[in-house]
């Protein structure tokens, strides 16, 4: 290579750098062009110095250094130019922003009706000294049946069609397993309520779902009687509905209580006349209850000679239906806001207010 060829090559390098900078859309593109057009080409030009006649090397060396400096300046200016463009774009956008315009309208969410009644029940029971506890949705046979006085061969198991899991566990069919867990954890005396989701392999209709909510209530102390049970339930329903509701108490069988009752409320959907929700009976099963069976107390490590107690399993989803006039339970498990949202809006409290009140 002779000196004129070398100079031409260095000139091309500068032209190429100018082109790359003008086309670059980002700082990264400029940096990668800088690496590509400076490192190797300059090293190659320096290596070519050795091939030039001695008297041309000084001039060639100076030209290489000058090109190197020029490239450095070009790329630095390219980066600075890009930064300026970005700032100018930001400023143009800021200039176009009108702080007096109204903000975008977003639909305001509402609490799910079941959440509303759950919080209401928790509020009432907490006021009576009940602690709110939880329990797992995937349960053991022991907690869901055995410890509730329903051994493996007991026909009462047929009352609750169960989703069994491959590992021998099950999806809890009711919140009653929380009774045993609470008794074992806290001992007596005890007042707890346990709201939560339950699962049954049910045929679905207007009042039955395979996934629904209950809240368990349990009170154990010395000398607890049926009068305590009835007083708490009446107060609970009166507070939730903010008026006296028509109820009826009839005998009911559950192996974990003795005696056991079914507390039904007059159907709020048809006013007691009979409809699909209440299966034309005018009554909705909502609050089965009873005095805790001594065997269950024993399973909970509590001495039935010293303590007695009552328990109930309130159907929260059905309670929400009655409170908000939702005639079909399927609406509450659907994502159809036409059915859910108007009911949810009936109560004012929002999640933000709730969390704020707790903090
Ligand atoms: C029970 O689940 C008992 N564990 C309740 C209990 C607790 C009795 C403590 C005594 C002492 P039952 O299967 O009846 O009982 O269900 C209780 C309530 O849950 C029903 O009254 C009803 O309101 C609701 N419920 C039951 N099955 C469904 C279903 N498939 N869909 C919607 N709600 C249901």
Q: What do these coordinates show?
A:
The protein has helices spanning 3-23, 27-49, 54-96, 113-127, 141-144, 177-186, 226-241, 294-299, 316-324, 329-333, 337-345, 351-358, and strands at 131-132, 138-139, 170-171, 190-199, 211-221, 247-251, 257-266, 283-292, 308-315. The mean pLDDT is 89. It is α+β, with helices and mostly antiparallel strands and 359 residues long. The protein folds into 2 domains: 3-96, no CATH class; 113-358, Bira Bifunctional Protein, Domain 2 (BirA Bifunctional Protein, domain 2, 2-Layer Sandwich). The strands form 2 sheets. Strands 1-4-5-9-8-7-6 form a 7-stranded mixed sheet, sandwiched between helices. A two-stranded antiparallel ribbon has the order 2-3. The protein is elongated, with a radius of gyration of 38 Å. α1 packs antiparallel against α2 (27-49), α4 (113-127) packs across α7 and α4 (113-127) packs across α9. β6 and β7 form a beta hairpin.
């Amino acid at each position: 290579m002779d000196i004129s060829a070398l100079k031409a090559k260095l000139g091309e390098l500068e032209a190429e750098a100018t082109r790359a900078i003008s086309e670059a859309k980002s700082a990264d593109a400029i940096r990668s062009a800088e690496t590509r057009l400076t490192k190797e080409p300059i090293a190659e030009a320096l290596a070519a110095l050795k091939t030039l006649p001695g008297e041309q090397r000084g001039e060639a060396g100076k030209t290489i250094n000058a090109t190197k400096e020029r490239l450095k300046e070009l790329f630095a200016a390219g980066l600075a130019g890009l930064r300026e463009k970005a700032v100018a774009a930001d400023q143009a956008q800021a200039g176009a922003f009108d702080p007096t315009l109204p903000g975008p309208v977003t639909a305001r969410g509402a609490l799910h009706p079941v959440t509303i009644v759950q919080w209401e029940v928790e509020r009432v029971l907490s006021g009576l000294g009940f602690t709110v506890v939880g329990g797992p949705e995937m349960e053991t046979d022991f907690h869901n049946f055995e410890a509730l006085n329903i051994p493996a061969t007991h026909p009462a198991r047929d009352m609750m069609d169960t989703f069994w899991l491959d590992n021998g566990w099950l999806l809890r069919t009711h919140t009653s397993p929380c009774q045993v867990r609470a008794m074992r954890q806290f001992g007596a005396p005890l007042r707890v309520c346990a709201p939560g989701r339950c699962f049954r392999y049910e045929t679905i209709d207007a009042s039955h779902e395979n996934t629904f909510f209950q809240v368990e209530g349990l009170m154990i102390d010395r000398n607890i009687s049926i009068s305590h049970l009835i007083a708490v339930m009446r107060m609970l329903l009166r507070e939730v509905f903010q008026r006296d509701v028509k109820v009826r108490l009839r005998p009911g069988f559950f192996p974990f209580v003795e005696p056991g009752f079914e507390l039904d409320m007059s159907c709020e959907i048809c006013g007691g006349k009979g409809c699909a929700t209440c299966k034309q009976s005018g009554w909705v099963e909502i609050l089965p209850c009873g005095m805790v069976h001594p065997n269950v107390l024993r399973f909970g490590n509590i001495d039935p000679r010293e303590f007695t107690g009552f328990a109930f399993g309130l159907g929260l989803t059905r309670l929400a239906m009655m409170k908000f006039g939702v005639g079909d339970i399927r609406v509450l498990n659907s994502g159809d806001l036409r059915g859910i949202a108007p009911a949810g809006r009936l109560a004012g409290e929002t999640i933000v207010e709730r969390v704020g009140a707790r903090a």
